[in-house]
Design a protein that fits this description.
By secondary structure, the chain is α+β, with helices and mostly antiparallel strands. It is built from seven helices and 17 strands. Strand 16 and strand 17 form a beta hairpin.
């Protein structure tokens, strides 16, 4: 799934496109086909209806002390939620800062990788040594509740905001594993997410695991190779439970193995297909 993103006034909107490859962030204007408030004849967003709704609220709502920033953010969040797409999300400025920190490999939370493609959030892995790993959470666990709130259909940004929190605070998850359901309370901590980890095993076999494609993944990977590759007879590259990330980082890693060729396809609206290739060194 490729992620399309637009940054406006410190907020962040991510809309999904079907694709074969890792995630990527790129500038794109807000789509003009969002349902419910669109003009069905022109396909354009009916901003007049939005303005009318805002005027009615400002004039008639019983509490005149309105938070217009929260209203604006709620409107955008509702627009994105109306897509019904778990891979499309709106991040307010505070959530966007947390998102940036996560891609830099640092945030306060429990250290768990979660996907939102099914009815309930699904755990795909944990950060080694994290509170989630120490609590015994496993790949394949379903998250039924977060802090007592039903997680069915929960958006990525809402689940993230509930799971993450200040260092030292606690969050309780209701987990379904096979036929059993149980609660686990986890104390949040500062998480340092490793982009790349490596070790030499057996008869000079270099084992490299890439946990995600963050902003420094290729540099970290190149450092591992420069230190260990010459003395290794073979290498194992482990991408299990890798949730994706920046496609340029994935391309750079691929370029160390492939001289040239197509790496992924991006499928857009109206059947458009963009093919991305890499040239190795």
């Amino acid at each position: 799934m490729i992620l399309r993103a637009v940054l406006r006034g410190g907020a962040f909107v991510v809309v999904g496109l079907v694709a074969f490859g890792a995630g990527v962030y790129a500038d794109q204007a807000l789509p003009d086909w969002i349902p419910y408030i669109a003009n069905h004849q022109t396909g354009r967003v009916n901003t007049a209806e939005l303005q009318d709704a805002i005027r009615v609220i400002q004039a008639e709502y019983v509490d005149g002390n309105l938070d217009t920033t929260k209203m604006s953010q709620g409107t955008i969040s509702g627009l994105v939620a109306s897509l019904g797409d778990p891979y499309s999300a709106y991040y307010d400025p505070d959530q966007y800062k947390k998102l940036q920190a996560a891609y830099e490999g640092r945030y306060s939370g429990i250290g768990v990788y979660v996907t939102f493609g099914s009815s309930y959030p699904l755990i795909t892995g944990t950060v080694p040594g994290s509170p989630a790993a120490k609590a015994g959470l496993q790949s394949g666990d379903q998250v039924l509740k977060v802090g007592g709130r039903d997680a069915s259909g929960m958006t990525a940004e809402l689940a993230t905001s509930l799971i993450q929190g200040p260092d030292g605070t606690q969050v309780t998850l209701t987990i379904k594993r096979d036929a059993s359901t149980f609660d686990v309370t986890i104390t949040r901590a500062e998480i340092q997410v490793p982009s790349v980890r490596s070790t030499v095993i057996g008869d000079h076999v270099l084992y490299v695991r890439i946990y995600s494609f963050g902003s420094t993944t290729f540099d970290d990977f190149a450092s591992v190779l420069s230190t260990n590759l010459a003395s290794s007879k073979s290498m194992v590259l482990d991408l299990r439970d890798n949730p994706g990330g920046f496609v340029d980082q994935a391309d750079s890693v691929i370029s160390d193995f492939v001289a040239s060729g197509e790496t992924f396809e991006e499928h857009g609206r109206n059947g458009s297909v963009t093919r991305h290739s890499v040239s190795g060194t």
